[in-house]
Design goal:
CATH architecture of the largest domain: Alpha-Beta Complex
Number of helices: 17
Radius of gyration: 23 Å
Order of helices and strands: EHHEHHHHEEHEHEEHHHHHHHHH
Structural class: alpha+beta
Oligomer: single chain
CATH topology of the largest domain: H-NOX domain
Helix content: 40-55%
Shape: globular
Distance between the termini: 50 Å
Length: about 350
């Protein structure tokens, strides 16, 4: 299957796009992404679609530095749950090693490698989208995000020895030199960052030795193998696509870069079908949404992918044995704790 990335890869995308005078919703729809889904950072979306979106956005805004503008807004928390563990690592080297070894937990498309020699450390970055496509903006976003990562640990004044890009320089290098300083170079042999190896030995000022053991235990509970989350990938895509009204096995297969038969076969290997997973996901989301009195039933109907509120009500009655309104009233009458 083609690689996925967390929604957090597009953190601040809407804001940056609007500030440059483009329509982010229209651009996202062109590549099959739904703006509503960006609200949940831990959901997964197509890496190919994200790569295409960034290239389209750079062209529409006429800004060759679009990916870098996104990187400037990166926050440590955008890494997801792994950020809670990294912030407790004793030094920069240990934190970076964890980030590189478990890159698949936040971006299945990213390929990063760290090497040290002659007093220098070289972080090389690449992308493996599963097909040939332009990826200049995604590369610059990745390099910029790692640059921000280093500055989180080493301070805002820290500068690398060099920042390399394999692509040619933009017409205006102002943003690149503002972000990276005078050390940025283009038309080089790899994409990445070169820094002094001693920088990696810098103690992590955020680390609390008393919390490190607990952070590691938490990490072990969430760090799954690369191939163990296939069912979750389909489930996450269902959640993202439901509000768009385009949640079909064909759309899921397209997002994963395979055909529908492959999706059916892999779900069957886990004892599931697309219909059973769709229904179970809808039930889970419906319970959360209907319990919230701030959501109208019409709105919930749309978020669950139903064409009309009446269709939602029929489906809900079949699954829960009562109407959504009755279920909401019963929940409201229940005490918050047993026995109260």
């Amino acid at each position: 299957m083609k690689p996925l990335v967390r929604n957090a890869a597009l953190n601040s995308y809407v804001e940056v796009s609007k500030s440059l005078g483009t329509d982010p919703r229209a651009l996202m729809k062109r590549v099959g992404l739904d703006p509503v889904g960006l609200a949940v950072q831990d959901r997964w979306i197509s890496g190919v679609a994200v790569t295409q979106l960034l290239e389209l956005s750079a062209a529409a805004s006429r800004r060759e530095d679009f990916g870098l503008l996104l990187a400037e807004r990166r926050r440590f928390s955008n890494l997801g749950p792994i950020s809670l563990v990294i912030r407790e690592e004793p030094d920069v080297r240990s934190a970076l090693d964890l980030l590189v070894r478990h890159e698949y937990m936040y971006n299945e498309m990213l390929r990063s490698r760290l090497s040290e020699a002659n007093g220098l450390a070289t972080l090389k970055l690449g992308l493996a989208p599963g097909e040939v496509l332009a990826a200049r903006q995604s590369i610059e976003l990745a390099v910029g995000a790692f640059h921000q990562f280093f500055r989180t640990f080493l301070g805002a004044r820290w500068q690398p020895v060099s920042v390399f890009f394999t692509h040619s320089a933009p017409v205006d290098t102002g943003t690149h030199r503002r972000v990276f300083g005078p050390v940025v170079e283009f038309d080089r042999e790899f994409n990445g960052i070169v820094l002094y190896a001693d920088d990696l030995s810098t103690p992590n000022p955020m680390s609390d030795p008393l919390l490190r053991t607990y952070a590691r235990q938490y990490f072990e509970s969430i760090a799954v193998s690369r191939g163990a989350t296939e069912l979750d990938r389909v489930r996450d895509l269902i959640e993202v696509l439901l509000p768009t009204g385009r949640c079909s096995i064909e759309q899921i297969a397209d997002s994963l870069g395979v055909d529908r038969r492959t999706v059916h076969r892999r779900l069957a290997a886990s004892g599931e079908t697309f219909s059973s997973l769709l229904s179970a996901t809808r039930v889970q989301i419906a319970e959360q949404l209907v319990a919230n009195p701030g959501r109208s039933l019409t709105e919930i109907s749309g978020l669950l992918g139903f064409s009309a509120p009446s269709a939602f009500s029929r489906w809900f009655g079949e699954r829960f044995g009562c109407s959504p309104r009755q279920w909401r009233l019963r929940r409201a009458e229940q005490p918050p704790f047993p026995g109260e």
